């Protein structure tokens, strides 16, 4: 992984965002997309996790500020995304998804419903103001990381 532009203190930027797909993607299309993304992220030193459910995306990206901000610009301009909202941006001492160039999970509505702590977050649409739920959004991603097979 590229580390040349790390901060002197070793911290990285972590951004969590949500967006809506402009059209639903099949599992096959999602897998193909993730397979294209992983090598690019690895070259950029980006790690993270993407959850997709019924056209809704929630993703955390981690890396240098330049790499994360550049990738977020690309994602914002991607016609497959609409209503992109950054929920949280912070400097972190260590990556939550350090071993994943991009983890991915197609999450069923049943799986989200079973996560009682995230009921309020899951009920909100992407277009709503989700800023008060940024911690729940990151915790949702982290739950899938911890329980990954």
UniProtKB/TrEMBL annotation:
It holds the Pfam family BLUF. InterPro entries: Acylphosphatase-like_dom_sf (IPR036046), BLUF_domain (IPR007024). GO terms for molecular function: blue light photoreceptor activity; FAD binding; transferase activity. Residues 12-103 form the BLUF domain. Keywords: Transferase. This is Putative sulfurtransferase.
């Amino acid at each position: 992984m590229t580390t040349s532009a790390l901060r002197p203190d070793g911290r990285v930027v972590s951004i969590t965002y949500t967006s809506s797909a402009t059209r639903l993607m099949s599992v096959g299309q999602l897998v193909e997309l993730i397979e294209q993304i992983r090598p690019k992220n690895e070259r950029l030193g980006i790690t993270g996790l993407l959850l997709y459910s019924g056209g809704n995306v929630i993703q955390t990206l981690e890396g240098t500020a330049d790499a994360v901000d550049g990738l977020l610009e690309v994602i914002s301009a991607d016609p497959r995304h609409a209503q992109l909202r950054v929920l949280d941006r912070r400097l972190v001492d260590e990556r939550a998804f350090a071993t994943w160039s991009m983890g991915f999970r197609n999450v069923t509505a049943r799986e989200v419903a079973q996560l009682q702590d995230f009921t309020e977050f899951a009920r909100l649409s992407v277009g709503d103001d989700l800023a008060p739920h940024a911690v729940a959004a990151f915790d949702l991603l982290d739950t899938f990381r911890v329980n990954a097979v």
